[in-house]
């Protein structure tokens, strides 16, 4: 048993040294850094073209992170970053996690459709909120998702679409996952009055949000009301 423990300690030490010496690793979070992201994204898109596969990007931002630093200090902010990074690193065996900048993370899923990633990230969003430090401070994250080639045919376009989806997630209340492509409400006239649809359209224009985003928010509130 002692030999096994010693062996595990050596393995952990070797892994720590590798992380410290790797220029592609962010030392605080153990995620890959921005340089690694740029390189990996280009390579994944090349492989996607060769193999006719999808590559899905998730852009993630910590909600009100500046307030955490201001109210509790930068050490607490660093602890939150580390805890959230651990959640992201454990999302799946197929993805790669990056500290994109500051409190912004990025996840790349090669050969994975957007809808599948959406379901994964919905669960991940909940896990972040339930993690010890985040639960104590009521920390949440917002996410935006875009997929090559569905949402764009180059890295710049995919990043722009994912960031746009992230912005909509924040604008519609935060602690949400938003898809890049504008969702359409199907057969909505079969369920709602003309007056309701006119009011929904007007509200969407005023709030600069999609009708689908507003309907999801309303459905969430309805479910909370009756699931108490």
Describe this structure in words.
It is built from nine helices and five strands. By secondary structure, it is of the alpha+beta class. It has two domains: 25-181, Reverse transcriptase/Diguanylate cyclase domain (Alpha-Beta Plaits, 2-Layer Sandwich), CATH 3.30.70; 185-228, Arc Repressor Mutant (Orthogonal Bundle). Helix 7 links the parallel strand 4 and strand 5 (177-179). Helix 3 (65-72) packs across helix 4 (74-89). The protein is globular. The chain starts with a helix and ends with a helix. The model is unreliable at 1-10 (pLDDT under 50).
Descriptive key words:
2 domains; 9 helices; globular; Arc Repressor Mutant; 5-stranded mixed beta sheet; Alpha-Beta Plaits; alpha+beta; 14% strand; 228 residues
Short account of what is shown:
The chain has about 230 residues and is α+β, with helices and mostly antiparallel strands.
SSE pattern: HHEHHEEHHEHEHH
> What's the main sheet like?
5 strands, mixed
What is the CATH topology assignment of the largest domain? Alpha-Beta Plaits
What's the total number of strands?
A: 5
- In the CATH hierarchy, what is the superfamily of the largest domain? Reverse transcriptase/Diguanylate cyclase domain
Uncertain stretches = 1-10
Helical proportion?
Answer: 55-70%
- Class by alpha and beta content: alpha+beta
